[in-house]
Each structure stands twice: as C-alpha cells, then as structure tokens.
Amino acid sequence: MSMENKQVAEVTTPLPAREAPGKGQFEMIAKTFQGLENVLAEELTQLGANNIQVGRRMVSFTGDQEMLYRSNFCLRTAIRVLKPIKHFRATSADEVYEAVKSIDWSQYLTNETTFAVDSVVYSTEFRHSKFVAYKVKDAIVDQFRERTGNRPNIRVSNPDIQLNMHIAEFDCTLSLDSSGESLHRRGYRQEAVEAPLNEVLAAGIILMTGWRGETDFIDPMCGSGTLPIEAALIARNMAPGLFRQGYAFEKWPDFDRELFEQIYNDDSQEREFGHKIYGYDNNRNAVAIAERNVKAAGLTGDITIQFQDFADFTQPQEKSILVTNPPYGERLKPEDLLGLYKMIGTQFKKQFVDNEAWVLSYREECFDAIGLKASLKVPLYNGSLECELRKYQMFSGRYNELRSEGREIKTDEERRQMAEKHRFKERRAVKQGLDETDEEFEERMSLRRREDRVAGDWRRREGFDERPRRLGWGGSERPRRRFDNDDDEQKPRRFNRDGGDDRKPRRFDRDDRRDGGFRKGGRDFQRGTRDFNKGKGRRYED
Fold first, then answer.
1. Segments forming the whole domain that contains residue 437
2. Which among 338, 350, 364, 446 counts the fewest CB atoms within 10 Å?
3. Number of domains present in the structure of the chain
4. Per residue in 132-145, pLDDT tens?
C-alpha cells in the first residue's frame, strides 16, 4: 500500500460504532426541525424503533426494512428518513473523494441508474455544500468509468437513487435518502396562501399540546387549513403518508412491494373522532383554498371552515383547544400588527374562558401585546425564524389560587363559587372610580406587587433601611445605611458630592476660574463661559 493510500485508509476509519443492530436491522436517521426532536423520538418509540438517540435536528434509531417503510409512511414530524452507508472522517475534499470511491457502488447503482447528491455542511474546512456534492458525484462516476468504461447519469429531479452527505466539522456521513421528496409534502395541499405553515411543524405543534382529539379544536387564523387538517389526521390517527404519490425507496433494488402495500392498507390503528375541528379566517380567498385542501384530504365531515374575523369570535359551547399561527410581520404585514395581537389577548380573556390557547409567533413585542402571562414557552424554528410556541391557560377565577388548591375547577357550581369569592375586587375597583374588569384589576395589582418586590430586593441588596428620597444640594440626606455596631466611628454620615462627610457640597469660588475654565482634580477644563463677573457677555480668549 502506498503512503497516500495508507493515509486515506486511516482517515476513513469508521467513527466509534453505535450499539450494533440486531439481525436484519440497520441504522437510520430521521431529520426534523430544531425543537421537534423529542416529539419525533416519542413517535419513533410508539412505532417500535430501537436504540433511539436524539441529536440536533435529527433522531437516530435502528430497525428493519419494515421500520424503514413505516417511518416514512407514519411519522408526522420527520422531514426525511436516511439510511447511512458509511461514517468516516475527512479533513479535505480529496479525502472525501477517496472515502466515497472506496465504497462498492455496484450494490446500489448500475450504468443505467440515475442518481443525485444532496449535501449539508457545518464545517470550517468545507464551506460550500455544492462543492462537496460534486466531489461525491465525481468519486461515484470515476469508479464506474474505471470498472465498466461507462457511467451512470445525474438527474436532479426524481432520480432513481438519492444520496445525502452530511459533514459536521470532520465527521462525515454518507446516506441513502429513502424519502425522496420531503415528507412535509403530504399530498393533500392543492393550493397555498402566502406564507403557509409547514405541515411537519404544524403536526409537531399539535403533538406538543398533548391534544389527541379529546375536545374541539379551533384555529381562528387558519390560512390554507394546515393546522385543522393535521389536527384531523392526529385525531383519527390516520397516517400522513396516505396522500403521497411515492417514496424514493420504491426504486431501490431490494424494494419489497408486498410488504409496503400491507403497511399502506393497514387501518387497524385508526379511530373514531366525536368532536369537531373549526378553521376561521378573515380572508375569503384563504377560506376557499382551505376548503379545497380539506376536501382533497377527505376530511370535510370533521373540519368546518368559515369566513370570520377573530374579533367577532364568541365563547365556544364545548370544551376546546385553540392553536393558531398569526402573522409575524415578516411576509404577511397587517396594517396594525401589535393591534392584532392585542385583540388576540382580549379575545382570549373574554371569549375563551376555561380553555387553553397556543400561539406560535416570532416577535417578542407581539407576545407582549397579547398582555397575558404564558404558562409554557417552547422555542421553535419556522424556516429561518427563531419563533416561540406559548401556552395560555384561561381561568374564570384566580390562577394562583387554583394552583395553590392543587386542582382545576371543573363544575359550573365550583366556577360560580370561585367567581363570587373574588367579586369584591371588582366592587373595590368601582369604588375607586376605575372602569376595569376583575382580570384587569388583578393584572394591575400583580404589576404593583412585582414593582414593590423589585424595589425591596434593591433596598436589601444596597443595605438601606428605607426607600431613597430625592437628593438636593440644600442639605437633604441620602438614606442611612445599616452598620453592625453603634460605635461613633461607624455611625452613618451624610453623603454629599465631595466624598461623604457632613459638610455641605463644596461650591467653586471665583478664584477657581482661570482663563475661561475652572480647576478640578488637578486639571484645567477649558470652558467657553461668559464673563459673568463683569457682565460684558463676551467669552474669554487665550
């Protein structure tokens, strides 16, 4: 072996092996959005995957060929499912080329097979993903040309085999892409409004709420209907892959059509849904698009789409959960963005009592405009935007008292008793001449208590006995500090401008002025002051 080949063999040594899969099992990687990794891991656990390990924007696991098919067909929060071919380390493009060329590609490709290479790079050495993809393509093509004198062709759209190269610094993973087109493309979306919500993100948000169809579901700003449709699929436990045209693994040489058809036609896990899902929007075009998408998904019996502004929303008759994705002001720009979020908070307080609401948004000032304290905050990425999903729990009584009692009020009688118990606050507000509700009074009192608490923390930290008073140069003193003993030398003194003794602040005399300035700290600061002594109104000159 030449020195050059020996060096390549050293750098292409596989990474430390994960737990070895069982007979007929192999490693797989499911990719997702940042923030949905744990939700995806839970889905894989329910599917029966083994050796589940959560990473950044991905979850690795092991399974057999059936698990590969099921993960593509059933996972709601996966973007694509990869089957790794080789793990290796490389510090240069040439090392990537040699490592890829060392793989026997005849077991995956033929001269008549078309393929494409996608690459994802997080490295200081490899800075261009397209360059890495070209190196992988060159290695495969050169191997076939040297062995057969011919080469397979590249096809960007709908290739027979799709490869994925992932590089994190010097750790490289080359995989077969079993999904092909991204799994977020369910197949039911006929049209989309501007700035539609990704289906994978929508499903992940609903799964995060814990809702599985136990109550009604409401999206007051549904757009093209993504959240309502994903909610209906979850409520009925229908696989999101029912509407897709195909997967990349169907073109693999070892594709088992009979096994996949068995998985596709298995509806034993589906369930009945006895509640309703409502989608509203104040854009008639969006309502029409949402209705067509719902019809394409075959879910018109579960989902009702209506034209309605959220400002006209009224208290639902049944127990409900509200999940919505309002405009952020990025692509969709309402005339009054903060006014929109303020209206959302008002409607939550007045028309969604004893229910919970979840809001996905981007700007902190938008959340502030809602004016409610979120009980849960979950960071999520919507594309490149670092968003947050916040939960708002609406109570008819005081939330803190309900928490202290360790339970939630469930019956109408309990709600009435709790409301009567706290009605005196509203009467007190009326006596004070304030036109505010009980919730607004509580919010104002909570703000006042929070301000007092912050001021108290400052006083304790600074060692003051009382709140600071306004300081003047007429002899008013600062607050006295605490001391451990009462010795005369330790008695508190008045603080003043010159260093803290009991004398009044020192004033500058006329003699201190010199040539348009005054002496301070051993330095002369030039001032263009007027000649006040002579009253001539002219400036001193050097």
1. 400-451
2. 364
3. 3
4. 999 999 999 999 99
